[in-house]
Amino acid sequence: MSILTSLLLLPLFGALVVGFLPASNAKLVKQVALAFSLLVTLVSIVMALSFDRNNSAMQFTEVRTWISAFNINYAVGIDGMALVLILMTTILVPVVFLAGWSESENGRWNVKVFYILLLILETMMIGVFSATDVFLFYVIFEAMLLPVYFLIGGYGSGERAAAAMKFLLYSLFGGLLMLAAVIGLYIISVNQGGATFDIARLSQLSIDSTTQNWLFLGFFIAFAIKAPLWPFHTWLPTAAKSATAGTSTLLLGVLDKVGTYGMIRFCMSFFPDATKTFTPAIITLAVISILYGAFLAIGQKDINSLIAFTSISHFGFITLGIFALTSQSLTGAIFYMVNHGFGTAALFLTAGWMIKRRGSSQIADFGGLQRVAPVLAWSFFIAGLSALALPGLSSFVSEFLVLLGAFAKYPVAAILGTLGIILAALYVLLAVQRAIHGETPASSAGISDLNLREKIAIAPVIAILVLLGFYPKPALEVINPTTQTIMTNAGVSDPVAKVVK
Amino acid sequence: MTISTNLVYFIALPLFSSGLLLLLGRKADKWGHIFATLVSASVFIIGVIEFFAMQGREGEARAATQKLFEWISVGSLQVDAGLLLDQLSICFVLLISGVGTLIHIYSIAYMSHDRDRRRFFAYLNLFIAAMLLLVLGDSYLNLYVGWEGVGLASYLLIGFWNEKPAYAAAAKKAFVANRVGDVGLSLAIMIAFTQFGTVTFAGVKEGASGASAGALTAIGAMLLLAAAGKSAQFPLQSWLGDAMAGPTPVSALIHAATMVTAGVYLITRSNFIFDASPTAQLMVVIVGAITLLFGALIGTAKDDIKKALAASTMSQIGYMILATGLGPVGYAFAIMHLITHGFFKAGMFLGAGSVMHGMNDEVNMRRYGALRKVMPITAATFGLGYLAILGVPPFAGFYSKDKIIETAFDSGGIQGILLGSITLLGAGITAFYMTRVMVLTFIGTKRWDEKAHPHESPFLMWAPMAALAVGSVASGFLLNSGSALVNWLQPVVNANQEYHSGHLLPPIVVSIMALTVVAIGVAIAVLKYRTVPVVAPENVLGITKAARKDLYQDSFNEAVFMRPGQKLTAGLVNTDYKVVDGLVRLVGWVVQISASNLRNIQNGYVRSYALIMVLGVIALIAAVWMVTL
Amino acid sequence: MLSAPNLDYALLAPIMIILGGALIGVLIEAFAKPAWRARLQLVISLAAIVISFNQLVRVRNDGSSIAAVTSVSVDGAGMFLQGAILIFAFLGILVIADQDNFAPQASALPGSAEEAAAIQAGKQQTEVFPLTMFAVAGMMLFPVATDYITLFVALEVLSLPLYLMAGLSRRRRLLSQEAALKYFLLGAYSSAFFLFGAALLYGYSGTISLNGLTDAIRGNTGNDVFLLLGIIFLSVGLLFKVGAVPFHSWKPDVYQGAPTPITGFMAAATKAAAFGATLRIFYLGLDAAQTSWKPFIAVISVITMIVGSLAAISQRDMKRMLAYSSIAHAGFVLTAIVSLSENALSASLFYLFAYGVATIGAFAIITIVRDSAGEVSDVNRWIGLGKKSPLVASVFSLFLLSFAGIPLTSGFVGKFSIFSAAYESGNITLVVVGVLSSAIAVFFYLRVILMLFFTDATTDSISVVIPSILTRISISISAIFTITLGIAPSLVFDIAQDFAYFLR
Amino acid sequence: MDISNYIYLSAILFTIGAIGVVVRRNAIVVFMCIELMLNAANLAFVTFSRIHGNLAGQVTSFFTMVVAACEVVVGLAIIVAIYRSRRSASVDDANLLKR
User: Fold this and answer.
1) Do B407 and B497 belong together in one domain?
2) Closest Cα of chain D to B603: distance in Å?
3) CA atoms within 13 A on the CB side of B308
4) What's the rounded Cα separation, in Å, for the pair C434 and C411?
5) pLDDT recorded at residue A500
6) What residue ranges of chain C have pLDDT lower than 70?
7) In whole angstroms, what is the distance from residue A234 CA to residue C340 CA?
């Protein structure tokens, strides 16, 4: 049983143990849940250390038959990209537990249910990145929505029920489209040498162009809804506004990454020709998302939906990076996914603390935090800087790689994307100016600064943002082989420099 | 290229100290500022040591490099965190750390009453670290990190007293304007990478000869946009005036001596791009000329002493940018003017600071008058700076500015004459507004309001001013004796043609013309400001009214960018709700409506159910009958 | 010389055992003491079902097409469905055993003195058990019948008891009697169509057996008009029983009116039996003439899926909503019929079993959600159940998620297999419509879950009565089935695949 | 006289029955129309049996008669129960279950 399967089962086992704890003793429940999530982080770090850097094939693989009738089996394995995303997930979960210590109190159900749902969600998050069987991926991809649905609906605020419903319906609709595509792919594999759901063999299938386009659309729309691209994004702000800070961190930080991860892992490797035909359209959508998300972020009144719209703009960058298909832009996009995870976590958690202290989530209600709560103000400021991709922080490295890579093939898109960084400066600094600078109004005079627990929660995230900014080598080293394999599968090579020395 | 190991200290020391001071918080309040000043001084000392070590080395071995670690390596993009200290960057290192240390010392006294002095010194050290990274980076990407780091530091320093919303807005405006410039720099890097496959200066230099003219012009234009953003040149110059919201030492260090000159450094460093594309050089010259006049005109009408000096900085940098556009020989003179300007402008800003310090933060010059009696040392140092900026022979300004006017004339043809006369006109206007400042502040009659009782600033403040005054006196002569600076920079900017070739006008004639124009300017100013009303008069020439409003630059930006931007955002916010979300809700609504209609068909009568069945059968029969026909 | 027809008693034994059980039930009803009657009936029927299932398991490998000359062909698919119907019956009877759902004396006038007396005396007519057993016998015969006589007889034996049972509800007697009337009139109406169709097909082929019909179509001997009209009229009877759209109007009213245990049993078992016969007729009898009937069955399946999902959205009553969802599921299985492939057959067998089990569980839960005046099936009254009794609410949500086809539930695997079979045989439009209608269906399932869990309970006191041990067993069995078939479907799926064959 | 005329007769009878169910209000009459449809089918069976010369049709018609009888038993029981509780046998009165 490979370390990956044990990593998958650990949080599930944790949820079981939490299930048996007495619901009355909230403190114990929280500590046990935190302990399990830290254990998972430890195991994932051990796995990362024993990951063989220069072999780009899937590692820690394990295959067990599940439904023999359709040759569906429990097949897991990870390459560089999946490893980096799993590491991000396992680091974020304990941070979310620690940061949202009191998030689980005023929900519809008791504390136990909150942590059981989160631990189950963690299993599914790890599972979705490590599944190498398309059916297994699809099952987790759909089932993952339920814990979040109950988390938002049960523990959120504002009209949380409607937000949860909209989120679930939107993603399920995407999921069902993908179901049709998965079935199509399966049937084609039946007629071409044996029914299979294995990613490697599915990418060898030769599919005629019209079917390939339809199947590509089936997959792509589901992923475009998940990582919200421009027209499919309206569920994200409402969900982020109603969910607790911890849930929205996981929702935007990890769950949405499944969308962009899926685009790389499935859309590109199964349907290379369709990818080429649709790339111009997708690039346009990505650029629209960048500018549209930024403009709307500037216009937001509520701090959570501001962060949500910034993420929509960032997802535009990621998709631009993916579909520009040069080694710089693809590596940049994957690295961007990781950085965005930590950046959004920092933003949401600090915003969550500010909202908890001030009691309202309207930006106008804040003011002069710098005087009253300097550490909180500074962490929000640094999180904001990572959102506007300040050099020295990790998001700059990834954003620059994406734009640099995209410029080689789609100069106009890259230029418009670069204009996005001006808008990024605007929406971050406007929020910082309203929330942190200016005089401290009487209403927010009594705000207390971060306590030790919160500092411990946010410290690793900011440390990672800075460290990966200065020394991104360990992450890039792991991602590069995956990019090379994806590029060779898609039959694309880097454009060579014009002036040969 | 000698490999040296102590370049990293230039950046590591100030960065470490700024991080330490910020993290330690209140605990470091007592010794924070001393520690920061010492760190800045030690960086200066290392710089001097390196300078003499460089002089010791001959020819090629002068430049020193150090590879810290491999920063980004993806596919064909290999970027190391490498540092390069060559003749050009040593000038900047010395200027930054030297003037920086003096300003650190000055700030100890100036900020003594401020509760957050430790945080101020932390930001200053952060700025020094970022600026040194900018000048020491060996590739455009490393330069870019320093470039935005400096932008961040200036944002923090301008917005130091951010409890006042106006100051916070000024800080934001500065950062966003810089960001527009940074777009230019990143695009230049992208074009360079697609053209040459590398982003290091050496690599780009090598490839520049083979690249197409269009690409080079594009890179040049983008670099110019970046320089305009950072050095507050036309069209991105609106933020410099508001940047005066920061404490005066900040304006002295950042908005006079160091940061605003980053643009000049960038263009000088990428001289191989500009030399290879004349169109780019023409653009540089045009931007320089426009800003030169633009700054000078604004300077004539500003009553706030710091805004007047800021406008003068803008126009002096216009001179430098113009010089860099005049081909290889211009680079050296631009750097020379940059260094001399660093001395006398920083000196004047510190002088203004000590005047404000004395007049408990009164900035309106119409409230000053006859301060020379009360603050003799400030008056003296400010006066020396004044003489230097005018270009009076023995002082620094004469050597650097005249050389620029000369090269402007020498660029030949109508362009030569046009540029030469613009620079001369600029010198005249500079003389006018600088004399106006001198007269309003130190000479003339006393116009203080009751509460003000000015006094001389303490030793810690006037000592750096004196040092800078000495610099503004001697630096011009030293740098020019035997064209020391030109030969020193020769390997970097290969200004090897004899710059004495074909003069349009002999140098002596040019200097005379310049001096006469300056004299005229001084005379006009002295005559005009014999009696100064305390309240700014209303009926003034149209040009002065315009100049008071910074030639409507802000209203232009608001009209063209800000308001349409806000309207677009508001428009997008409700279209997003109505259209995109609307579509989703429409689908829900349609499903709802059709569901309720379907419900009504079920009306409960058995006979209607039976009728539906019969209709179903008839439909089937009809369909099958048609199919089989 | 007349030779006695050779009846393969081993294969027919399961049906006979059930009939035996039913007859004993009638005798008990007549002679046993009232106090003893209910318990005795329950034991007898459960015993009959278990013995019959045991016999079915013993003969599972030796299916033969001439079990009763040409009338019955007990083959793989038939046996699988018989097994499924027996399981549904077992679970159904457990829920039916909870007596207070049924009128003490069906014939007594509602609200009359006579009825009040019957209630005091605790007289409790338990003829519902034998009626169920007769219905089960009919249902077991219907999928294996291969000639028109047996088909028609099985159809009637299966339907008549259901018409009666629909009218037995103890509370809201008027609604229940109205449901019975509607079900009867429309049921009889559709069987008349069925018979006339059979007559026409007999006219076309000359024999009353399906095999004869296939040979006739291949030989192209008869007059085509009879064939076409015959197919249409025959399928009217079948589509009515299954609840396909133009013939679905009875379902919502009857499901709402009939007593809930009966609705649960009926929804699961009738659908399995009806689809059994439809599969056989279309796969064996009419597969040679598929070009003529495939288009209109496809159209019906599309309309059924869409109307089933759409109409459910605005329903106020829980039972009516589940009725529309069962109509939508009928639409999905119809796509399997249109696909006419071996995979489609195994997919539909699995789908019928998975869906049937979940339906019985869902309706069982509706029986135990009550207020002072008995069952509450108004959806708005269920608000906040998640808070009051989380276990019941989460089990009910599990069943709804299975209907919606959310992964890790049996419904998902069923839908996946049906859609892949349909895709394989080329009707991709059906798959797309299927996917879209399940997207619409998800909307109303989630609205209910949202109501259960996320809206706060209002004042009126609906409370979950502690269900009798039998109902609790039935609900937990169906829940376990729904989960296990979701996570490890190959347990039943492999059986479905082995049994997916028809013998001519 | 050609035997197939009986087929047309049975078809006509069937349609009359079918329309009768839709048009008439009284439950008993509706039920009679259904019986009429069943007998039309019987007639068809017998006629086809005569055309094909084998007895299968006639045997089937016996079975349908038996089944029709059972239907009568059940149907009338339900209709009588409805009548006693509602005092009217009209099919349209039974419309509580709707929408």
Assistant:
1) yes
2) 5
3) 24
4) 13
5) 66
6) 1, 99-101, 110-111, 118-124, 457-463
7) 42
Question: Is residue D95 one of the residues assigned to a domain?
Answer: no
Q: What domain range includes position D66?
A: 5-89
pLDDT at residue number A278:
94
For residue A94, give the nearest of A113, A122, A114, A117 by alpha carbon: A122
Instruction: List chain C domain ranges.
Output: 9-498
Q: Scanning every residue of chain A, which has its alpha carbon at the shortest distance from the alpha carbon of B165?
A: A438
Question: Does pLDDT of B508 surpass 90?
Answer: no
> Do B312 and B409 have their domain in common?
yes
CA distance C501 to C79: 10
pTM listed for this prediction: 0.90
Q: What is the pLDDT of residue C371?
A: 77
> End-to-end distance of chain A based on CA atoms, in angstroms?
52
Residue A248 falls inside a structural domain:
yes
Helices (runs of H) and strands (runs of E) counted in chain C:
20, 5
DSSP state at residue A133: B
pLDDT at B57 over 90: no
Asked if residue A160 is part of any domain, the answer here is yes
ipTM score? 0.87
CATH number, residue D29? 1.10.287.3510
DSSP B225-259: HHHHHHTT-TTS-HHHHHGGGS-HHHHHIIIIISG
Residue A54 lies in a domain: yes
**Based on the domain organization, do B359 and B306 belong to the same domain?**
yes
Is the residue at B161 inside a domain? no
State the pLDDT at residue A90. 95
| Euclidean distance between CA atoms A144 and A149, whole angstroms | 9
| Cα–Cα distance for residue pair B267/B488, rounded to 1 Å | 18
Q: Is residue B180 part of a domain?
A: no
Of B168, B190, B572, the CB nearest to A438: B168
- Residues C429 and A386: their CA atoms lie apart, in Å, by 47
- Tell me if B201 is assigned to some domain: no
The whole-number average pLDDT for the span B605-609 is 89
The mean pLDDT value of chain B amounts to 87
* Residue A466 located in a structural domain: yes
Of D51, D74, D97, the CB nearest to C175: D97
Does residue B498 carry a pLDDT above 70? no
CB atoms within 10 A of CB D51: 15
List of residues 6+ apart from C445 with CB closer than 8 A: C325, C400, C401, C403, C404
Please tell me if residue C92 touches chain A, with a CB cutoff of 8 Å. Answer: no
Tell me if A439 and B163 make a contact (CB, 8 A cut-off).
yes
Do A497 and B193 make contact, defined as CB atoms within 8 angstroms? yes
Measured between CB atoms, does C283 come within 8 Å of chain B?
A: no
pLDDT (tens digit, 9 = 90+) per residue, C400-427? 999 998 888 899 999 999 999 999 988 8
- Domain co-membership, B514 together with B571: no
Residues B496 and B619 in one domain: no
In a domain, B186, yes or no: no
To the nearest whole Å, the CA of A426 is away from the closest chain C CA by 38
Please state, in angstroms and rounded to a whole number, the distance separating the CA atoms of residues A71 and A198.
9
Q: Which domain holds residue A164?
A: 3-489
Write down which residue in B498, B525, B548 finishes a domain: B548
Do residues B425 and B473 share a domain? yes
> In chain B, how long is the greatest CA-to-CA distance?
117
Domain with B321 in it: 277-548
Tally of CB atoms within 10 A around A159:
13
Tell me, yes or no, whether chains D and A touch by having 3 or more C-beta pairs under 8 A.
no
Q: Give dist(CA A187, CA B172) in Å, integer.
A: 57
Give me the residue from B602, B603, B606 closest to D91, CB to CB.
Answer: B606
CA dist C141 and B245 (Å) reads 93
Domain count, chain A: 1
The β-bridge relationship of strands B2-3 and B64-74 is parallel
pLDDT for A173-182, tens place per residue? 899 999 999 9
